[in-house]
Amino acid sequence: MHSKRFIPGILFVILLSYGFTEITFDKPAQKQDNSNEWRQLFNGKDLTGWKHVGPGSISVENGLIRGHGGMGLLYWTSEKFGNCTIRVVFKMRDKNSNSGVFIRIPIEPYEEWMPVYYGYEVQIDNMPELSDEDDYHYTGMLYSLTKPLAKTGKPGPEWNTMEITLDGSRTIVYLNGTKVTDFKEGDPVPERKFDFEPYHGPRPDFGYIGLQNHGENDVVFFKKLP
Q1: Range of the domain at 81
Q2: What is the CA radius of gyration of the chain?
């Protein structure tokens, strides 16, 4: 995410006690016995359960989610997520493309910029230097807030697997089997460099999740696991 716009401030699934969320897309149903099951949020056919806000659109083509134009956001409408792991399998159409997985969005998004400023974006972009950005904007980072523990993003058209663990106020990201981010609320973060970066401050333990369609030349595909 590196589109430029400023708006004034507004008020604002790892194995844990209730299981897994896989966004490939999956979220485990909470069970009385605390068993762990993956539950698909994307049926591989259409976007039932999802809603798009902002410019552009997102569609399903050949069983894959993909964006058109932007910048917009596709979000899961029916519930908030926390204390779970979200597994996302994606590939870039070209060698590099820009997108993001949004987490901890505090309220149901009514436009595309509120999640940018008040949620967290787990970035998808292996070459942020092309937009005069740095390692804090690399794939698997909490956009502009964390620096890579490792750089394991695969260029298009190779598939990548990202697992985002929401453990209370802690967020852990594995990219292709390697831990790349481990952040908890209160950890130091760099000063904001751009007006399109998120505002600093705590995020909720449970929030809405979504996918970004960044722009016409940034095509990222997401797939349902078998």
Answers
A1: 21-184+203-223
A2: 16
Using alpha carbons, select from 94, 96, 79 the residue that is nearest to residue 30. 79
The one-letter amino acid code at 113 reads: W
| Cα–Cα nearest to 207, from 30, 86, 35 | 86
Residue 190 in any domain: the answer is no
d(CA 218, CA 99): 7
Assigned domain for 196 exists: no
What is the pTM for the complete model shown?
A: 0.86
84-135: per-residue pLDDT in tens?
999 999 999 999 999 999 999 999 999 999 999 999 999 999 999 988 999 9
**CA 223 – CA 25 distance, rounded (Å):** 8
pLDDT tens string 45-87: 999 999 999 999 999 999 999 999 989 999 999 999 999 999 9
Count of C-beta atoms within a 10 Å radius of residue 140: 29
d(C-alpha 149, C-alpha 160), whole Å: 17
